[in-house]
Amino acid sequence: MNEYSEYKCWMQERKAAIPNTIALCLATLCADQDCVFAMDELRSGLSRFAPLAKAAAGKLTFLGTIAHLNAEHGLDLPAQKPEGFVIRVTDVMVIIAGQDKAGLLYGVHRFLMLLAQDKITVGIEAADAPSVPIRMINHWDNCDGTVERGYAGRSLFFDKDRFDYDPQRIIDYARLLSSIGINRLSINNVNVRAAAKLLITEEYLPELAKLAALFRPFNIRLAISINFAAPYLLGELATADPLDPAVAAWWCERTNLIYRYVPDLAGFVVKADSEYEPGPFQYGRGHAEGANMLAAALKPHGGQVWWRCFVYNCTQDWRNTKIDRARAAFDHFKPLDGQFADNVFLQIKHGPYDFQVSEPVSPLFGALSETRCLMEVQITQEYTGHQIDLCFLPWIWTKILHFDTGYGEHSRIEELMGTRIQGLVAVGNVGLDRNWTGHTLAQANLYGFGRLAWNPSLCAAEIAEEWAHLSFGREAAAEIAGILLASYPTYQKYNAPFGVCFMVEPKLHYGPNVEGYEFSRWGTYHRADRQAIGIDRTECGTGYTAQYAPQVAAIFADPALCPEEFLLFFHRVRYDFVMKNGKTLLQNIYDTHFEGCDEVQVFLKRWLALKGSIAESVYESVKARMEKQLENARQWRDVINTYFYRHTGIADQSGRKIYD
Ligand code: GCV
């Protein structure tokens, strides 16, 4: 690789000769109309590889659907699952075949990615298909151009209450997303406020249609977040009661109108009865009633409802130790299991709280047996460093995917993907910044999300190496992947200790504020005093552990067995509690905070050593962010250590500096 562009992410130019050159002559032998777009993508993708384009004597390239190529050209390509593909390279030909049109496109992208990693060789036969049908990004973009929890500039889609975008940039974004298998995208914030309420009116629908047309060829169907109260917010009815026939009829008509403009709209994302958003509770109705009413309107059009389970009491009294926010999603939705229409998907955050740095997997995934759901993760780094601090999220997502819910056979989350769990959805991390993600290395999180949604069995190291190779070339890849892979454990060390959540600056959610959420209404307490910290969530406490399968509950409920990263999430523990390494909880808090900060210093040194081996622009921008990260880690270290030192009066055994 000689030219590096932050804009091109993992689709860099590779003008230098590739060792095992596969020469292609771009005459497709497949007459299938569906091939044209994939062919163009292949052609433009190959233009990144100069020697290939110039190849005189090339191989013949077959592109098409598997059925078509087998029937017309006597091939024996094995059938794949929907959206799957086969890549076959022989002495005389290259075949890229899709199970369907989408699969063909994904096959083209995989071919290009393998080529860029020097992995296309004669004799290769690669077949692959996604594990789940829904691989979605949720944008939290507002129509005024701001992005809720966005750390990469303003919205790609909106400005000043209008659709406002550069079509070429949208096409480039769509290409990036389709190269990693994303097939759904919701464009607006789940908090549907101000002008966003009007996205479902004819004032905005023609523009929505134009945007959808840009994504469509890339097999990406758009979705929108809707406001449950739209019938009265738009001034057309006096109520939004889901059981009122006039409301149901209103949604049917409105949905019909939307589909006249966007016939392949994927559906509606709904945040209802959550953090002050309206919902069925307002009318004494349940969530199944609300979701099913919308599902009925979408059904004739093949649309779906993604109904978020982020429903909890956000006006809690901190004095009340009986209410436990962690219980909320299960308590609300488990009793409704089996009551949802077949085009409703419960969209469940991966943990019971809210994208915290260390929280267990939500018990709802294992417990729901009759309801389809999606797992929601956050690529945007709301609690994981705002795309200032380096935090490679596939590291944690793979751990989540390996979690064994303990319900029945094949009960690990990754095994439920494709059955009860029908998809992965993530809050996106992209904005108008030239490098898309603010921190250039945060591109790896977007890439990793797509790869895991496609194949939840991939490991974090594989993803890091693949991404680093594609983005920076083979030489720097191992070192950059190494830094990425160390980054989450490091972030965990200097953040809130051992499964305590929300020790962050209120509203901003960056930097430490130990008691920032301690006396608030959000249900986010650690209740540290002079002797102990943490919440007892066992049967003797809030009873949250009982939401898990019995054998899983037994592990979480026993402080000796509970994974230490969640110790204070599940237990109230004295500072002199002895942990697995033989040291007290307090000493472990001190140690991890000193270590975390030291490790950031090491990242910076490792990065500085890469000078000259990666493009100057990315070298400098990442260096600047790492310097800020170091300041943040120091602040965390000192605030946390001082807080616990002041509470306990017990000094660090190693005599390191703790401010008093
Ligand atoms: C879109 C957290 C975030 C909010 C977000 C909410 C949600 O509370 O801080 O910004 O709102 O989650 O997921 O709905």
Tag the structure with descriptive keywords.
globular; 660 residues; 20 helices; eight-stranded parallel barrel; five-stranded mixed sheet; Alpha-d-glucuronidase, C-terminal Domain; Chitobiase, domain 2; binds 4-O-methyl-alpha-D-glucopyranuronic acid; TIM Barrel; 36% helix; 3 domains; alpha/beta
Could you walk me through the main structural features you see in this protein, from its secondary elements to its overall organization?
This protein has 660 residues and is an alpha/beta fold. It has three domains: 6-128, Chitobiase, domain 2 (2-Layer Sandwich); 134-458, Glycosidases (TIM Barrel), CATH 3.20.20.80; 459-535 and 572-660, Alpha-d-glucuronidase, C-terminal Domain (Alpha-Beta Complex), CATH 3.90.1330. It is built from 20 helices and 17 strands. The protein has helices at residues 35-46, 50-54, 66-73, 101-116, 167-179, 205-215, 230-233, 245-261, 287-298, 328-333, 364-367, 394-402, 413-416, 443-454, 460-472, 474-494, 550-557, 567-570, 585-608, 616-648, and strands at residues 24-28, 59-65, 85-89, 93-98, 125-128, 134-138, 158-159, 162-163, 184-186, 221-226, 267-270, 304-308, 344-349, 373-378, 421-427, 532-533, 573-574. The strands form four sheets. It has an eight-stranded parallel β-barrel with strand order 6-9-10-11-12-13-14-15. The protein has a five-stranded mixed sheet with strand order 1-2-4-3-5. The protein has a two-stranded antiparallel ribbon with strand order 7-8. Helix 15 (460-472) crosses helix 16. It is globular and about 80 Å long. The chain starts with 23 loop residues before the first strand and ends in a 12-residue tail after the last helix. 51% of the residues are buried. 4-O-methyl-alpha-D-glucopyranuronic acid (GCV) binds next to loops.
